[in-house]
Amino acid sequence: MPKIRFLLTDGAELAVEAQSGRTLMETALENSVPGIIAECNGSAACATCHVVLPENIMSALGPISEHENDMLDFAEAPREPGSRLSCQIKVSDALDNVSVRIPAA
Amino acid sequence: MSEAVKVVDDVAFEDLLANPYPVFKRVRDLGPVVKVEAANIMMVTRFDDIIAIERDPETFSSINPQSLLNTVIGPNLMRKDGDDHARERAAMDPSLRPGVVKRCWADPMRAICDDVISQIEHRGEAELFDELAAPIAARALADILGFDDVDWRTMALWSQSLIDGSGNYSHNPEIARKAREAANGVESAVDRMLPHHRDNPNPSMLSSMLQADPPQTVEQIYANIKVAIGGGLNETRDSILTLILGLLQNPDQLARVRAEPSLWGPAFEEAVRWISPIGMYPRRLTRDMEISGTLVRKGEQVGLCVGAANHDDRRFSDPEKFDIFREEKSHLAFGAGSHFCAGTWVSRALVSQIAVPTVFERLRNLRLKNPDHIRIRGWVFRGPTHMPVVWDA
Ligand code: HEM
Ligand code: FES
Known about the structure:
The complex is a heterodimer.
Chain A: E1 3-7, E2 13-17, H1 24-30, E3 50-52, H2 66-72, E4 83-85, E5 98-101
Parallel strand pairs in A: 1-5
Antiparallel strand pairs in A: 1-2, 3-4
Chain B: E1 6-8, H1 13-18, H2 20-30, E2 33-36, E3 41-44, H3 47-54, E4 60-61, H4 68-73, H5 82-92, H6 98-118, E5 125-127, H7 128-145, H8 152-166, H9 173-199, H10 205-211, H11 218-232, H12 234-249, H13 251-259, H14 264-274, E6 281-285, E7 289-291, E8 294-296, E9 301-304, H15 306-309, H16 344-362, E10 367-368, E11 375-377, E12 383-386, E13 388-390
Parallel strand pairs in B: 1-2, 3-9
Antiparallel strand pairs in B: 2-3, 4-6, 5-13, 6-9, 7-8, 10-13, 11-12
Helix pairs in contact in B: 6-7, 6-16, 7-8, 7-12, 8-9, 8-11, 9-10, 9-11, 12-14, 12-16, 14-16
The structure holds protoporphyrin IX containing FE and FE2/S2 (inorganic) cluster (FES).
């Protein structure tokens, strides 16, 4: 089971065991990670599940859809190079031990 | 041991229409699921319960082929789930994404608002429901759908007739006839416009539906355009009026917003939390399920009262107050889950970035004509119904 390190807005870290195949958003909700609201429950419609990933793993996660790309520009916290909607990312070994930062609005 | 659903039988339907919030409060305090006889529905009114329900669409389904909505407008995305829903949703989203709204719709929406305000500006007096909010909402929607020959009054009539038809539980023949007429009107308008949009791909919803992979069938286009007309006009209109009302009743907050334009966003979210344009929508249980300890049976329908959840005092302090500075917490005015309002980003831009700021910019010293006689009505759909104002012309 990959281990995900959520970096919270107050600087604290919350490390959780994640199940491969679930989305990063679902993993965050199951572990009550503060700052992941996920109003639309994974439909890429609300942009309230914004996370920032290390840039060097972006390519391993596959391309960003046009829809997600558009949505990311309007998330409450400003977009960064490693920004993604966590509901559009499936947990895999590529995320093992990776720091997933919750950006401050 | 699970509890049985409690019943409230001493509320009149008129009480709900006049002001549902006291009823919502009573029901919320009574239990997680309460049958309100006057509305003939089991209400879910607590914020956390609605969130939990919307995270479990397999149990709390939107699928309901026998619903009045499907009878009136045909099988549509609001009453589908899973991949069937996602495909139809994806066919309209390219017209409604926030970036598309900014690039393609902001300028036309600004032109519409300027035009509507220019017609009343010199007068110093107007009734904002008919003379401002309804035409702005209807004309903006017509542009986004891709209708170029439908005037705003026709749009407004179609919208109201479709809404009334979908709520026509008493089978009133006149309401049913008007809804049929509106449905026919929408279908003819779609038929007139489709060749143009087929030949000229563009960001409008009709064009997006044709460009979708696979392209939407004509039946899907008819039905989902009707959803957008029934669900995208009154809510925008009502939220324009509600935001203006909240600010006029709270001049200190108005002054702060005008000095600090970044507050328009939070002010809009507060307006739709305060008086939510859609107060309730249904889900149907696919199996027996407890909602916070109360058992609801398979096949039953529950009404998710987002208007009530947005006044849940476990989450929002002094919920009946309009306060744009309240601690930022997400609300449910746009629903939640996979049916989260498709028009969220359009309405945020139109209402909070364009229409209402322009109103306060151009109608100087705007004030309510009769501050003591504000008419607000409805519970499934709620908003100000009449808003006479004056300003320094
Ligand atoms: C302030 C304005 C608005 C509010 C408060 C609002 C509210 C809502 C709510 C609560 C739902 C969920 C209904 C359900 O789950 O059964 C919804 C769905 C929907 N809304 Fe809005 N709405 C607004 C504006 C708009 C606009 C402008 C459009 C179109 C341009 C629109 C199009 C839709 C559509 C198509 C759906 C169905 C989505 C689906 O089933 O996936 N709405 N809206
Ligand atoms: S949960 Fe709404 S965009 Fe990811």
